[in-house]
């Protein structure tokens, strides 16, 4: 109960992101698009690789555009921010999703060496149970702790009976 009272909402997701585009040429680079598409805020990660015999341009910029597959909303475009990682070029964006449904996604790449785009679809999922996730995912550990406590209490009662 104390853990539930102290639990604060976190800006995290339930589970790992997954790829919707893998090693696809787009303009002057090869990209993989990973996502964690939750209703509310979904996250996208573009991992950039140089094409065979090429290099990654320094002036590379990415945008991501989303739209429900039903067409009920117009395309919304969001800039992606470069993340400076050791040994990997990655761009990230947070995108608001208002409903659980199939969404079309387009990634746009721009550079002096060329531009391009790639498209995919993704099913936006509802966010987890919020604070209840903590209870749900910790229940196996709480169960083991309860069994361990019961075993200790039984052992204690047996020792008390033997010493009496």
Question: What does this molecule look like?
Answer:
The chain has 2 helices and 9 strands. The protein has helices at residues 2-6, 132-163; strands at residues 18-26, 29-36, 40-49, 61-68, 76-79, 81-85, 88-97, 102-111, 114-123. The strands form 2 sheets. It has a 5-stranded antiparallel sheet, with no helix packed on it. β1 and β2 form a beta hairpin. The two termini are 37 Å apart.
Chain-wise SSE layout:
Blueprint: H1 2-6, E1 18-26, E2 29-36, E3 40-49, E4 61-68, E5 76-79, E6 81-85, E7 88-97, E8 102-111, E9 114-123, H2 132-163
The counted number of beta strands is 9
Look at the helices and sheets and give the structural class: alpha+beta
| Widest sheet, order of strands | 1-2-3-7-6
Written as H for each helix and E for each strand, in order along the chain, the element string is HEEEEEEEEEH
Uncertain segments are 2-13
Average residue pLDDT? 87
Rg of Cα set: 24 Å
The count of helical stretches stands at 2
Q: Oligomerization state of this entry?
A: single chain
- Any idea what the shape is? elongated
Quick summary of this structure?
23% of the residues lie in helices and 45% in strands.
Which descriptors would you attach to this protein?
5-stranded antiparallel beta sheet; alpha+beta; 4-stranded antiparallel beta sheet; 2 helices; 164 residues; single chain; 23% helix
């Amino acid at each position: 109960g104390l853990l539930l009272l102290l639990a604060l909402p976190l800006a995290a997701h339930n589970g790992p992101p997954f790829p919707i585009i893998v090693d696809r040429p787009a303009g002057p680079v090869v990209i993989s698009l990973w996502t964690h598409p939750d209703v509310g805020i979904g996250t996208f990660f573009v991992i950039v690789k140089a094409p065979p015999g090429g290099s990654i341009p320094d002036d590379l910029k990415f945008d991501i555009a989303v739209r429900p597959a039903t067409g009920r909303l117009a395309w919304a475009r969001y800039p992606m921010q470069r993340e400076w990682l050791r040994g990997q070029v990655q761009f990230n964006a947070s995108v608001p999703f208002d409903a659980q449904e199939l969404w079309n996604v387009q990634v746009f790449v721009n550079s002096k060496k060329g531009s391009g785009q790639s498209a995919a679809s993704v099913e936006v999922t509802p966010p987890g149970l919020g604070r209840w996730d903590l209870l749900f995912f910790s229940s196996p550990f709480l169960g083991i702790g309860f069994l361990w406590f019961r075993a200790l209490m039984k052992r204690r009662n047996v020792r008390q009976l033997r010493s009496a």
